[in-house]
């Protein structure tokens, strides 16, 4: 079965060969066949297909690639959000509240909530989702989290080293996260992650878990420099991590390290919006030559938003990105952060993850914040929204 999406006013391909950052083709068409992009070009030259979809002059983008989310959980933390908005400082302590509720939930409850959130994301144009564990913090509970995540998410990350649960000292829990817990979780995951931060795990402890994960066949990524300036970004670069996520507090050396490495700086503006922390300086990273991704960090505590469009709008307004830079970072940038070459772009051979807007231009994602702008979505060539 083949489908042509025709009468596209603006097709964002993210093809670097097209000569601009977004690889825009105007008055375009796109052909989907066998789950992949088979052809792109001027609408007048589109080949015959089995089916057609009229984009009616609207913009078409690659599906969003959300490379950082925590979706296997139970409960919510609205009261914690209200407390922060009344002036209490965010210190990540509420994670333990979610741990208690997640441990008490059934597999079906966790699976249903994960399915709900991934569906919510898809209806907003997100077609690739990374999902972390981290709300179980026992061998059995973490294995359950990554196993359930692997049923529905595109990418799964083992984050046993999220915080230290009650009853453990940090050194003992680090050993557990790097040994028995890792062994139980590795068969269900592709990535290993650590929350390297004051009050969580220091650089040596993070290195222990990450190196054990690498030895077990997992690739590293890292929660880095969210609450304070510290060693996490340098550790991410040292280990050739796919991404250093948050990057809110960076030294000049951190920026230089990211710019001279393959490690993507994944920025999570929804967290700063929801915690009233300073926003990361995307302009500083981009001007230095670092690769930047945008992701939601959807979770019940520090950012309960699944909207990549919202992240784009905040990144443009408060992190000094251009609309084109923000859209690239939410699509191709997210793919780089997952070291994926099949998503984040719409060129022949790519996975047919297609996001049709209700608007004529990608600029409207930042220009009209908070307004639903998804007209249709295909994931791997199948219409999902």
CATH superfamily of the largest domain: Metal-dependent hydrolases
Uncertain ranges? none
Structural class: alpha/beta
DSSP strand content:
15-25%
Roughly how much helix do the residues carry, as a percent range?
25-40%
Largest sheet: number of strands, sense, barrel closure: 9 strands, parallel
Mean pLDDT: 96
Rg, Cα atoms, Å: 20 Å
CATH topology of the largest domain: TIM Barrel
How many DSSP H or I helices? 15
CATH class of the largest domain: Alpha Beta
The span between the termini is 18 Å
Q: What sort of overall outline do the alpha carbons produce when their principal axes are compared?
A: globular
Number of domains: 2
Number of strands: 17
Q: What is the CATH architecture descriptor of the largest domain?
A: Alpha-Beta Barrel
